[in-house]
Amino acid sequence: MKNFFITGFFLFFMTFSVSASELTEDYFDMASNYVIQGNYREAVNFLNKILVTEPQNSNVRDLKNGLEQILQGRNKSFILSKSNNVKQSIEMKKNGDKQEELVTLTSGKDYWSYYFLGNYYRNNGNYTQAVDYFIKSVNAKPDLVQCYLQIALCYFESKNYSQAMTYLNQYLKINQQDDFAYALRARCEAGLGDENSALSDIITAIALENSLDYRLLEAKILYNMKRYSQALEKLEKLVEEVQTSEVYKLIGLCQAELGNNTDAIINLDKAMLLLFEDDKNLSAKYNEIKAKI
Known about the structure:
Number of strands: 0
Helix content: over 70%
Strand content: under 5%
Radius of gyration: 20 Å
């Protein structure tokens, strides 16, 4: 039965656009295969690889969170929709008819329709409308606490970190073992300049789920705290598992701050080779360090 629930959930998210990156598509295909096999933990590992290169990919984050909640035996109820309006809207979405998708959802008056309307507006960047519908959903079904996390994501994506924290705190009172929520709160705290709290929360998230995405965030926080040696240590372990422009860039920046300019140039060079488009700030930093050698 669990396989039925999670496969349906996964197929729903496959109707979204994930990314144009071939590497991302490969990781997503691998995650899909593992879900079909029932190996959800390996599926999460491949979703984490996507999030290292695309940390703001909300669809992948949502899917990862749903899979992890299944692994933890929690919140199965929000995965399988029993709303006819939602089922019809998914068909409209598959057909590429966004207008009918919206009309079908709007005509629904149940908490599932409200929840999916929240997702619809969030995916289209209309965060005010999204929040309104997530609030309607949780008011209609108070135990659908996933809405608090979705509201927090809306505020996070609109860079209203203080308001996001309010809903994350509310969500974490109920779900104290949710690593994704701790990681999201760490991002909010970092956005507000509270690096100490951010570090504490990301360490908690890693203790719950030792993901690549969280470990990269920990290194970024340490770098922002000017704890370059610790950040470099974390990144050098990370690069053994994933080689991306961002990881090499951070390694190079840490090495430069520690005075290892030759190694910094080598790693910044790798970072620029992996970029899909020019990064003027990175090029300027590269030239600045190279001039010191």
